[in-house]
Every structure is written in structure tokens, then in C-alpha cells.
Amino acid sequence: MLAWASGLFALHLVMSLLALATIGRDHRALELDEAFLGSAEPLTVLVAGASHSRNAVAADLLGGMSVAVAGEHYLKTRYRLPWLLHRSPRSVGAVILPLDAATLTSWKADNFDPEVVWGRYVPFLNLGWQRGEPLDYAGKAIAANLAPYAGQADAFGYWRAGLRAFQDEDNIERFKGQPPVWMRRWGREAADLHLKGHEPRDPGKVWAVRSLVEDLKARQVRVVLVTYPVTRAYHDTAVLHGADLDKTRELVADLLEPGVVDYLDFESLYFDRDDAFYDGDHLGGKGRAHFTRVLYDELVAMGIDVDSPRRR
């Protein structure tokens, strides 16, 4: 029995080291962490959030930086962004955060795969008690700290395929050149995926965005909440699932304060320009370049001194 137990422990140790050396080290979030922490240069703007944020804004053209990662919902950003700011001496003038139809949905609200990555920031035990799921989140804490390989067969596969945010990241060029009818269908399917059968405003995510904004205000970092462009088909389907923006904005309306916490709504900007997108809810190359210039104009109008993308 001692030999058997020793063998199991040795296997556990080998698998843990393998997970730490692969999926625990080679993730897009960690790569961006290193880039942010590797410089002391001040940043005028810092873009955070998930794939809508990542794909919509060419932050480097504004003289800023993006730490947005596909699949990073607000219960991740709430902890990751303060974790980064606490560990860096660089000043940040304004943080751009998302507020759109999919931002607060309960879709994937409890997904933190791989836990060995997100456990770097998220206090799973505390969050589990807060969400009323202590046992589930205790399991996440164990996976993050004691058995990083547990349940990660898919993550190993994505890592080997070179997808740096694993199942949440795909090749953004994969849908180039699709006809309008396809884009409309994909817009409906994407909205269904994000919202059908899910709570459009998950209480935990509502808490997370409000708490994060208050944290940034305490750090004297200006906050700009942005509703990013989506296709008309995505918008119409999202509204059918109860994810209308008016109700979402009501949840943060009391936080808005010009010059401190601002809000910009671009949801309908490209309703008649499906060619601006690479799928039903993510901007593609042409749309991203144009939207970055549009965002620049709005930020300058609010007194945020960003670099002009037209000069770059």
C-alpha cells in the first residue's frame, strides 16, 4: 500500500508540474500580465474586458494598452485588474470597461477554466460563499492550488493547438468574406448562445462591475464604460432574451459621474455595416480600425489626452 500510495503521489506530482509548465504558464492573460508589469511607463488608457473589448479597440494606436482576454467575464476582471494595478508602479489615466448585452449575463459566470490560471487572481473560497456555492468553489480552489491538471484534458488540447486563451479564443480571421445572410444568422446564434436560458443580469456580475468601478475610483483612475458595436441581428435577438441596454444601464446609473465615471454607447454604430464585423458580435479588421478612430474622438471630447490613431 505504501508503494501504491507513493506511486500515486509521484504521478500527481508529475501531472501537476506538467500542468504548471503548460496551461499554467502559457495563457494569454499571463502574457498580457507580463507586458503590463514589465514597464513603468504611464498609460493614458488601459482597455480591459473580454473578446468584445479585445477585438474592438487597437489600444496601442491610442498610446495605451489592452489587457482584455477572450472569456474574461466580470467576476474575473474584478480581481485581475486590481491585482495588476496593485503590482505596478505605472500610472493609468483611464480604464475602458465593457457594458453591453452580454457583459452581465449568467452565461459562463461560474466558469474559471483553467483554475490554475484564474486562481492567480480570484479568491475562490470567498467568492464561493458570496455566490452561495461554497462546495463548487472549494473544488475550484483545489484545482487551482493542489491539482492543476484536474479536469483539464480539453485545456491541454487547446494549448497544443496554440490557442492562447484556450477554448475562449479562436482565429479572428476565420469568418472573413462571409455574405450578409451568414452574418445575420451568426448574429442570432451568438446572441442565443450568450443569453438564451440565462439570466441577462447575473447578480454576481452586477456586484463585480459595481465593485470594480468603486475600486478604480478609490485609486483615482478614471473609468469609461463602453457599449461596443454589434450587428443588428445580435441586438434584436438579445432584446428578445431580455438583455435590453436600458435595464443594464439602470444597474450602474448611480455610479456615473462626468469626468470620473463616463459612459459611451456605440451598440448601433454599425447596424447597417455587417462588413465591419468578422462574426455577429465582434468587430473585424476594418471595423476595428474605424472604431478606434471613433473612440479616439469621443475620449478627446471628454478631456482624455490619448494619442491620435491617425498619426500612427
Description:
This protein is an alpha/beta fold. It has one domain (about 1-305): SGNH hydrolase (Rossmann fold, 3-Layer(aba) Sandwich), CATH 3.40.50. Helix content is about 45%, strand content about 10%. It is built from 13 helices and five strands. The chain has helices spanning about 1-20, 30-35, 50-55, 75-85, 115-120, 125-130, 135-145, 155-160, 180-195, 205-220, 230-240, 245-250, 285-300; strands at about 45, 65, 90-100, 220-225, 260-265. A five-stranded parallel β-sheet has the order 2-1-3-4-5. It is globular.
Question: What attributes does this structure have?
Answer:
5 strands; 13 helices; 312 residues; alpha/beta; five-stranded parallel sheet
In short:
The chain has 312 residues and is of the alpha/beta class. The chain contains 13 helices and 5 strands.
Would you tell me the overall average pLDDT? 87
Report the total helices.
13
Main sheet, how many strands, which sense, barrel?
A: 5 strands, parallel
| Ends apart, CA distance between termini | 67 Å
- Give the C-alpha Rg: 20 Å
CATH topology-level name:
Rossmann fold
Summed up, the domain count is 1
Order of helices and strands: HHEHEHEHHHHHHEHHEH
Number of strands: 5
Relative helix content? 40-55%
CATH class: Alpha Beta
Q: Main sheet: which strands, in order across? A: 2-1-3-4-5
Could you give me the name of the CATH homologous superfamily? SGNH hydrolase
Low-confidence stretches: none
> What share of residues are in beta strands?
5-15%
| Overall form | globular
The helix/strand class is alpha/beta
CATH architecture type: 3-Layer(aba) Sandwich
